[in-house]
Amino acid sequence: MGSYAWIAVTSATAVRVVAERVPRLPSDVGVAAVGESTARAARAAGWTVDLVPAESSAAALADALPSTRGTVLFPRSDLAAPTFVDALRARAIDVDDVVAYRTVGTGSGPLSLDRRPDVVLVTSGSVAREVVRRMAPLDPRTLVACIGPGTAADARAAGLPVHVVSASRSAEALLDAVVETLPPHVPEQEGTP
Fold first, then answer.
1. For FRET with 178, which of 26, 81, 91, 160 sits at 20 to 30 Å CA-CA?
2. CA distance 76 to 165
């Protein structure tokens, strides 16, 4: 880790994987996190977070990262888009693009559900693709809620309708957006349809 100027993380999973292998980051390595959720995970791992861009996206993280003569370590999922790496290389910043973990599907066949879901939460492009692969066609009454505009674009590209988009990339913001969108639930009373 000593040869890196920065470590850039775009998911809590990336933080966990690195923290399991490197108990403590050297004090001279800057930590850049894509958004507040990832920053919280980094802080929970004992890291000091030096940079969180105003917008939670790989492109915004790349833009916000200061020019550096050192190398940036980018531990990522095998499915991560090249946005961050391409943007740094376009700025002549050296980056070690490392597949730190693999994203795997949840099975191969269609899901059999006892009842239709009211809402499907989509937290990444890979989740959107799994929903299409395992749950399509969705009941038209099922809402699709996406964690931020980038994920919403990925969901649309995968063929999902998007009904709810959280203002920021956090679980809290996603749940708040869903609660604001859902109609109030009226419990059924005995003797009424």
1. 81
2. 24
Among candidate residues 20, 81, 57, 90, the one with its CA nearest the CA of residue 32:
57
**Mean pLDDT along residues 14-20:** 95
What percent of the chain has pLDDT above 70? Answer: 94
* Domain extent listing, the chain: 4-101, 119-181
pTM for this entry = 0.73
CB 8 within 8 Å of CB 85? no
Which CATH entry fits the domain spanning 4-101: 3.30.390.50, 3.40.50.10090, 3.40.50.12160, 1.20.1250.20?
Answer: 3.40.50.10090
Q: What is the pLDDT of residues 27-51, one digit of tens each?
A: 999 999 998 889 999 999 999 999 9
